[in-house]
Amino acid sequence: MNKKILKRFDSLRLEGEKARSNVIRPGSTIIQVGSATCENAAGAREIREEFRKHIASSGRADIVLHDVGCTGRCSLEPIVGILRPGERPVKYQQVSREGVHRIFTDHVLHGQPVAELILDGTQKSGSRYEILFCRGERCGNLAARGLQARLRERLEQRGVGADVVAVQGVNFADMCVGESKFQGGHFLVRPGNHLYRVASDADLERFIDEHLLADRPVQELIVQEQPIGQNFFELYGDISFFNRQSRIALRNSGIIDPTSLPEYLNAGGFHSLARVLAAGDPDGVIAELSASKLRGRGGGGFPTGSKWQMARKEPGGEKYIICNADEGDPGAFMDRSMLEGDPFSVVEGMIIGGFAIGASRGFFYVRAEYPLAIERIENALAACRKHGLLGEDILGSGFSFDLEIRLGAGAFVCGEETALIHSIEGERGQPRIRPPYPSQSGLWGKPTVINNVETFANVPVILEHGAEWFRHIGSDKSGGTKVFALAGKVNHTGLVEVPIGTTLREIIMEIGGGCPKGKRFKAVQTGGPAGGCIPATHADLAVDYDTLTAMGTIMGSGGMIVMDEDDCMVDIAKFFMKFSADESCGKCTPCREGSKRMLEILERITAGEGREDDIAKLERLGLLMKRTSLCGLGRAAANPVLSTLRHYREEYAAHITEHRCPAKRCAALVRYSILADKCVGCTACARNCPANCIAGAAKKPHAIDPERCIKCGRCFRVCRFGAVERN
Amino acid sequence: MSRFQPTNACQRQAIDESRATLPADIVDYIQKVEGQPHPESQLISVLHKIQRHYGYLDRAHMDAVAHLLGVPAAKVSGVATFYHFFRLTPRGKYVISVCMGTACYVKGADKVLEKIREELGIDFGETTRDGLFSLEEARCLGTCGLAPVLMINDEVHAKVSPDKVPALLERYAAQP
Ligand SMILES: Cc1cc2nc3c(=O)[nH]c(=O)nc-3n(C[C@H](O)[C@H](O)[C@H](O)COP(=O)(O)O)c2cc1C
Ligand code: SF4
Ligand code: SF4
Ligand code: SF4
Ligand code: FES
What are phi and psi of A571, to 5 degrees? Predict the structure, then answer.
């Protein structure tokens, strides 16, 4: 252990602490505003400005505006958090300019939260204390079982009511770290954010007597170590969307200022790097990663430890490490959020990776469509260079390493490793045959490791808390958590990080809140253009790399598009096939031609011109593409078709033989007509019809001329009397 | 061999011409990377800079880049045409990128698109006759949680619905 390195790091951290406390002085009221592409699109920039004005005109120096990344609660953005000293933090949703004024005057200045605007309606329960009790379900902590129920029982026996305390069951997932593992149950008490560990009824009694009834926290029962999820729970633990999640890769998103190195250091950042450099044992790092069962989060799920090992044992001095931030799956935004919300953790993971494999140069390959993420990475790299965390002789260890950003240019295939390498080299991003694998011969012919953003973000935490802990969180074969981007027809769109092995039902129905407008959940699409649809009947499937593959889809990078009864599975398959046909690089015939032919067939099926043997043709072509395409794009492009054929064959058949779209989505197959007995002749449909094909006198039943109708569906939407029929 | 050290007058003149074609900061950038390993790998970065500056890639600019970076002109246009992000024709003052990613698609992006087409009378890849708006297809802007979305120049607009389109376009058209 090289003590000098750790000392250097400690002084850096102290320096950071000082810098941070100059910005946020103890005792200040903090106004947190989300700062990310999604938050800004929802209007965060304007409200930040509005708060700034309010603070300035209040003349108060103890009110600070604090930018944080996004928490991943997209549908309710912009989100604002108010942290008054000694009080529970309050979060507000969909804050508008007027909202800012009310929040500022009522809450920030006068301590009265604005009830109607509180996130998810989690209005202060009115109780003095709030207890977030870890259910211990994720880690199988048997010692925790039953303790929550016993606490509730005792509170009841003692007559301690809701005015004093509210108890909620949550999942912490990372409380049981280190030696104290499984020694009892854990709960967080707010305000004050005391983390308790209790093992017996006597402990519970003591907690009630001293803390709840006499306001004296029981120091002996309070745990001193800071589990990584704690910061997150302190802020967001009262919200059920969040407290069922296990924030590990997203540990800092929505909590720290993503542009501030001091804040990252303060959150425990770069401690892993310092320890790794001080230990000076690259093989040890790789062994730890292998033991953690971390698998690549970019889609393939290759064990990260093995990948690093392969590159490490290649001879030769020059090696490269690359972060794949191309995030091409349309409908996935985990990587963007992570880079915008916590870029330093990815940088730290990459430096550690560079050290482990013996690289001195690395690259971020980022989509050009993500300007804010690019800006945040640039800023992080500059800050690291300035403080000796990148560049020559990092922290005095003798290890030199630097990172560069390279931009993609809107080609999905560049997410594929060999295409990505060509793109960094300044070429057209076309894949090549593997082997040789990049870990043998990659960028400029040198051994190269490519990992996904989320993979890197996990590395520092694994080394901090140990492989054993990480492995325990996930399933048998894959350790840790996975971040999913929940979108489509789901109430709570956003980022959901859960242990691998969590069921679809928990993700979509419980955390995601099911489909909006009371519609029926039909299917979920995972893995984007390379994945497939899982029907709602399989909602109890535990999500893991292998279980998804067995269902005919893939884990992919984490995009989850929820679909309801109005979505047509043939149409979705067509959507993805169009995507793949557009994005095929054209290098090999099965993919270039196969995707076009499959698209043509799908187009005629959805146009009502499907032929008897089309299903067989799709299957034959799909299997051919799978077997003979050169790269992953072509090999997986048929998955959306094959998986929907597997689960929704009857929908294809209905299109082909009955000329009917069961979901009534395919325009060519639906017909609009007006029910004369329901039509009151309000003329709304006729006035809105772009084809002018609805006739009828006012107050008399109207009628549609089916010949001229372009099936835009507007009449159906505007009729308030349910008189327009669609079938 | 660095393109910045011509050996005769004729070469010098050709290089000066190429340099004069491009904005100074881009010339400086190329000169800087010349001194680093693998300068040709910066081709895509340079094209990004040009597109950011002019809004599109012009033949003359691409030729100048080829000349200064020392790569064949055919390769420059090969790269420029391969990547969807690069535009080879000028665009309107406001570029509307409608996201056609999966999340936006299932949330009705096609209806929004139809409305924009109807309002502006243009399709993907086209520009209105007054040069004010261009319409483009985007492949997911990473704000799927707020779908459907569209971007006008650098600004992302969330949860757009067909009936919000006219006012939105009006707002831009009214800007000086
Ligand atoms: C067509 C295609 C697109 C891909 N797109 C991405 C992407 O956007 N991001 C990503 O991390 N991996 C993507 N991958 C997977 C990568 O090739 C590679 O497996 C991954 O980056 C390795 O990192 P990991 O082991 O950390 O997952 C793609 C693969 C293919 C075939
Ligand atoms: S499978 Fe498709 S994307 Fe991959 S090399 Fe072949 S043509 Fe290109
Ligand atoms: S909108 Fe409905 S009620 Fe009114 S004229 Fe049309 S069909 Fe009849
Ligand atoms: S679907 Fe559209 S075109 Fe057809 S009748 Fe209704 S409004 Fe008119
Ligand atoms: S699918 Fe439209 S922003 Fe992602």
Answer: -65, -40
